[in-house]
Each structure stands twice: as C-alpha cells, then as structure tokens.
Amino acid sequence: MPYRPISNDLKECAICLWGSGWRLEDICDALGVSSRSCYRWRQILEEHGSVNRPPSPLTGHAQTVTRALLTAMEDLFSEHPDLYLDEICTWLAVKHDIDLSTSSLSRTLNSVGLSRKMLQKLASERNELWHSDKNERTYARHYGHAPCGRRAQLRDVFVRGTRYSLCAALTTEGYIASHVIEGTYDTQQFYDFIAEEVLPQMNPFPAEHSVLILDNCRIHRNDALVELVENAGMCRFSFVCTNQYECNICRVHHQVSSSLFTGSHPDRRIIQLPYTFHPNLITGFANIVQSRRIYDAMRLKFT
pTM for this structure? Predict the structure, then answer.
C-alpha cells in the first residue's frame, strides 16, 4: 500500500474501535488502513499518550535568511534590479548583522525564484516625471535579478551627455600630473600636457621620475614629442606596445578603477564604500611586472 497521510482523528478512531471489541480485520476494511499501522499507533499511544510521536529534539541549523529578509530583498531588487550579490551581502551585514557568502545568497535567491537575467533598460528621458542627477552611462550594468517569468527592468539614461577625457602621469608614489578636458585628446593637446605638466617634474636619469613610458597610441607617436623629450636632456623615453598588457601599468590601473566605478552605483544610497587608490596598489602592479622578468627584458627602470 503506497504512503498516504492519515489524520489524527482517523488514527484515534481506529484505536477506539479496537479497544471497543472490534475485530482488527473489520477496522482495516472499514477505515482503509493496514493492520501494521494499527499496531504502530497503539504502541505510540502507550509510549507517548498520543497517536503521534513528539517532534525530534535533533533539528538542523535555523535558516539564516528569514522570510522577512527575503521579502525585503525582493523589494530591494524591485527598486534596484541591477544590484550585485556582494552589495546585497554587505547590506545584510550592515543592516541586519548577517554574515552570508555570495554563493549562499545565490542559492537562496534561486530557491525563491529570483533569477539572474539580462537587464531590460527603459529610457528615463521618456518619462517627464522621472529626474536623474547623472547624464552619462559610465556606470551601466548589464545583468540584474528579478522573479522567474518577469523581466529585470531598469530605468537608465540613454543620452551620453558631455564626454570628458583624463590624462595623467602615474608613478609608484601616485599621480604627479593630471589634466581633464572636455571631448577627446588630440596630438597637440597631449603634447602640451607633456611639455607643461610632466617634463617640469622629471629628473635626469637614473634619478627618480627619469623614465617616461608611453603606449603606442596614435597621439603618442609624435616626432615633435620625441624631439621635445630628447632635447630636454633630463629623462629617457620609451614606448610600450599595447598588446604587452602586463607592462602597461596605467592600463591595468584603468581597468581596476573602471571596475570599482561600475561596482559603486552613483544613485544608490544603501551602501557607500569609499575607494581610495593607495600608492601601494601601484607598487604592487610594478612588483607583478618585475616578477615576470619584464624589467630585465626591456631594461627599463620604473621610478
């Protein structure tokens, strides 16, 4: 006979009829139960005073994420569907004092039907009542969470706005020169930046700040710029190929900064984590390059 749940009143009725003098076969035929079940119910009744066993004292670990927290996270994703899992973990730690890994959080969200899917972006400009304090798409995210069967919709700006370009000189101690312009750098503007802001802070080789390293960008390969550096007689000039990714410390630093900017949403007030680039970060990049013996191959001195 396959398993089927039997109510407590039916169990008590079977035991009562058995105690009243009914034959066990008649009880089984009338109630549709087995004789083994009747013997088991009578034994449980004699041991515990009830036809059901008491709950076992050995229970598993209490659920960390309660139903109330799941409801709060659903409301959070409905307002900010592009939140990252690590940001939700930080929110749980700060707001609710719960330490949860991203893998555990992912399994919990999947169990309640909050799946990861591609974001469907809605233009915020089409709604006159929607106001945004940003006019660019630097922080755009592509994936979010939403209940199964529903789209993860995010209001975002579709107008890129004003474009700015940053040029900076990076050393192991940090930045020594930086300049921001509206638009894109051209050859002449980059030449002026090197001549006016970088060269005055450089020293004769092999002192500190004595090697100028550039990648082979089109605006960098300028004969006038090479002549300017050579005539200054203060430093050495060298190009690094763009495909030599390990050598291009500025490019690696740009990748890290871009990932941090993308991970820190500008419109979010839930968590505000300050990200500061310490000189040790840049020194760490230089140590990675040195460990791969690129210094010896290029015979350059990073200062």
Answer: 0.41
